[in-house]
Amino acid sequence: MNPTVRTIRLVATEQAHPTRRSAATDAQVVHLTIAPDKLLLTVVEAAHRLGISRSLMYELIAAGEIETIHIGRLCKIAARTVEAFVERRNTPAAEPASQATESRL
């Protein structure tokens, strides 16, 4: 069996129709595929991961905040690039020079 495919057996806990067979014989099998994390994301997927709009993602790309990878005509964004963007934004910014001067006075 492929390690990314999991089989889940759903069993009804209540019998909706008394004329039906037992819940154990009515069990359904659902195949669920769990995909590993992607290395490259589309612009829409990267925007979704950040919780922003597609338009804002294109603005970040144009501003040089997010680097892209072109494969033929495709424009992709490395998942680590998205994570690095968040880390850069998450670190406290340096104190502006004007405030640093005022605090010394």
- Sheet-strand content, in percent, reads 15-25%
Task: Characterize the quaternary organization of these chains.
Answer: single chain
User: Structural class, please?
Assistant: alpha+beta
Strands ordered across the widest β-sheet: 3-5-4
Number of strands: 5
Radius of gyration: 25 Å
* Helix proportion: 25-40%
Overall mean pLDDT: 78
Low-confidence stretches: none
Helix/strand order, N-terminal first: EEEHHEEHH
End-to-end CA span: 70 Å
- Overall body shape: elongated
The number of helical runs is: 4
The biggest sheet amounts to:
3 strands, antiparallel
Walk me through the structure.
The strands form 2 sheets. Strands 3-5-4 form a 3-stranded antiparallel sheet. It has a two-stranded antiparallel sheet with strand order 1-2. The protein is built from 4 helices and 5 strands, in the order βββααββαα. It has a domain at 40-90. The chain is an alpha+beta fold and 105 residues long.
